[in-house]
Amino acid sequence: MIGTYRTLLSPKLLTIKQRSRGGGSRTARRLLIGALGLLVGYGLYWGITRLLEILLMVEDLGPLLASKILSIGLLAMLGILLLSSLIAALSSFFLARDLPAIRSAPVDWLAVYFARLTETLVSSSWMVLLLMLPLLIAYEQVFEGGIGFYAVSASALIPFFLIPAVVGSAVTLLLVRVFPAARSRDILTFVSIATVGLLVLGLRLLRPERLVNPDASRELVDYLAVLRGPSSPWLSSQWTADAMTGYLEGGFDPFWLLLLWSTAAGLVVLGALLHWRMFSLCFTKAQEGADQRVRRHAGWRAYETLLSPLPLRRRELILKDTRTFFRDTTQWSQLILLAVLVVVYVYNIRVLPIRSNEVLQRWLVSIVFFLNLALSGFVLAAIAARFVFPSYSLEGRTLWLLGSSPVQTSTLMWSKFWIGAAPLTVLAVALAWVTNAFLGVETGFLVLALVTTAALSLAFASQALAWGVFFPQFEAENAAQIPTSVGGLLFMLGAVGNLILVILVQYLPLRRHVWSGFTGGEATQAVGWELGTALVLTLAVCGLTTLVPYVVASRRLDA
Amino acid sequence: MIVLEGLTKKYGDFTAVAGIDVEIPANCIFGLLGPNGAGKTTTLRMIAGILRPDAGRVLLGGHDVHEAPDLAKAILGFVPDRPFVYEKLTGAELLRFTAGLWGMSGPEVETRIDELLELWDLMPWKDQLVEAYSHGMRQKLIISSALVHSPKVLVIDEPMVGLDPRSAWLFKDLLRSFVDKGGTALVSTHTLELAENLADVMAVIHRGQLAAFGTLEDLRRQAASEGAGLEEIFLRITRGATDEDIERVLSQ
């Protein structure tokens, strides 16, 4: 059985080996992602360490609160693990392309179960494990746990990861018994993304920045103290937290490790039995297609009417792109994350401490105006990377139809540009309006902000499209993978450069006004010619950064 | 109707197509044969205007595919070797979209879509997403998309893949009627029986070059195989594995 298990896993191991071989752009990309990962990891480590130090300043209650935080963190991770296990299990047990070959081969069912469970376990937990490392190191450092703490953590975390993988695989089996595999994937994708969105929103609305304010952190500590006692004694996250904090506080109890390991072992046996009884039946069921009948809703008819003034070919291309986007759960569900990002951003501006006794600090508003421009520009660039950059790559294997049709490159470029640029501009203008209203900027600055964000949206849409044409990813399995390519990174770098240039050409004519209050003098109002110069320079820069990539990409398509 | 002049395509140092010259008249089914990797698909993709040749040119109805693509492609219907289509469109939407690319819309297109779906027994699937279609159904849908705008030239890469016997028969009948009504069809295939029964003129491509060209009789003469069938002619021209090679593999 072990030999078969190894053989079944060998294609995955060989693929990882092949991918690990570096080379040119791949190595550069890995180094960049690695550096970014280290930076995020260090940020997390610093934040958790700081939080623990603040909590431990509270006598008696400190260690309890630290334990509570760990338990809440592990509970959140258990939730994420369970969700990602569901998706990973669906893929490895029911949707993988090698399954027909494996099913037709004379292999032991138990070896298949263990091999697919291993794949599920690895693909659902590697990222959570990476996220967990800063947490573990922070606890070890603050509590001085030593090497023993890592040993106890490793012993606890193996069953902690295994339990949701087994449960996820079993639930997937039952889910596929009821729904076809493709529909189950859609449901799970939506639930996962909505959960992540709600989690991010929830964390932001907790206002963690209050921890740096001594008065507010006292309130938070009091609040957390209310949550005394184990909140989820039946969950493996609590057992893991108890094993780890028990060791850190000098009262290590092996019972929790025994409980974790025996539960994991029992669940693996139950999972294997369920697989033995039901897999064949469920796999057959998974092959059935869902009813994919499409009905034309009133909304679609209204959209078609809205587009009716456009020339036929442009209209058909836009309609096709809109339909394929909104019928693909992996695509449209990203809008949930986008909505969360926008809400968090607006909320951040709303709660900025820039008011003193309800009197607006004018100099601060001017500084924040530019910060807002930089940050909202970055958000727009990220959105363009996610939604506009992949649009050409997504044509991928169907490019033969456009290539053999008499559609001109200019028509294709026009449609691809506007289907990305139009919603991006609407979002940008709305974002600029709301955030600048919260900041209470002068009318002149408001107009400048609205024009700038609109111009930047067009420039980013054009650049994202152009980089997408030059670095297509026709073989990508889903749209979310495409922006992580070298082309995506180059686009982001270019967009940030564009943003810096715009801020610079606005800052130069307005600098006198920006610093007037800050240097202790009387705050001044920006005059018309200063704002006008900033506006004209912005339009000139963005005009160039919109047109040049657009033309270059069109020529590339023509070549 | 289809003219290839010195058509050449290179991928790095590898020459996929090396200076092919062919002229295919109207009212003709032209069969393009050749072993795997001979350059058939590359040739067809250049004819359809998907790939740009490194040298030479393609004329469709007298118009250069790369110099005047609007005019040349307006009379073209193309069926690729693999039926990749937009998975999230319905069958009817895909055909409507294709018609739109050729500048057609309105009630005539709707009637045409229904006729084509009816022909291939796809009417019950008209409003289903393409992702629910089987391989054969996708192939029928792609053949329909090549016909929806009533082209004068059909370029088809491996038409029989996934088609059931009834659909295969229907396809042959359809192609013959298309040509009888003035159309021109270029069909690349590995199915020698299809080429032998259907093609008026054939060509064998081998290592990117035209190894033989003409009617079945012409091919027999060129391969010095009097009275031989197309299979024997093809093997002689392309020099495939020998009986000894097969014996060696099976004896292990």
Within the largest sheet of chain B, what's the order of strands? 6-7-8-3-9-10
Strand content of chain B: 15-25%
The overall average pLDDT of chain A, rounded, is: 83
Distance between the termini of chain A: 55 Å
Please provide the count of β strands of chain B.
10
End-to-end Cα distance of chain B, whole Å, is 51 Å
Number of helices of chain B: 10
Structural class of chain A: mainly alpha
Helix content of chain A: over 70%
The biggest sheet of chain A amounts to:
2 strands, antiparallel
* Helix and strand pattern of chain A: HHHHHHHHHHHHHHEEHHHHHH
Q: Segments of chain A where pLDDT lies below 50 for 5+ residues?
A: none
Radius of gyration of chain A: 27 Å
The total count of helices of chain A amounts to: 20
In total, the number of strands of chain A is 2
Helix share of residues of chain B? Answer: 25-40%
Alpha-beta classification of chain B: alpha/beta
Account of the 3D structure:
The complex is a heterodimer of chains A (559) and B (252). With 559 residues, chain A is an all-alpha fold. Helices cover 79% and strands 1% of the residues of chain A. In chain A, a hairpin with a 2-residue loop joins strand 1 and strand 2. The longest helix of chain A is centred in the first third of the chain and has 35 residues. The model of chain A has no long low-confidence stretch (mean pLDDT 83). Chain B is globular. With 252 residues, chain B is an alpha/beta fold. The longest helix of chain B has 16 residues. Chain B is built from ten helices and ten strands. Chain B has a six-stranded mixed β-sheet, sandwiched between helices. The chains are: A mainly alpha (559), B alpha/beta (252). Chains A and B meet through helix 12 and helix 16 of A and helix 2 and helix 3 of B.
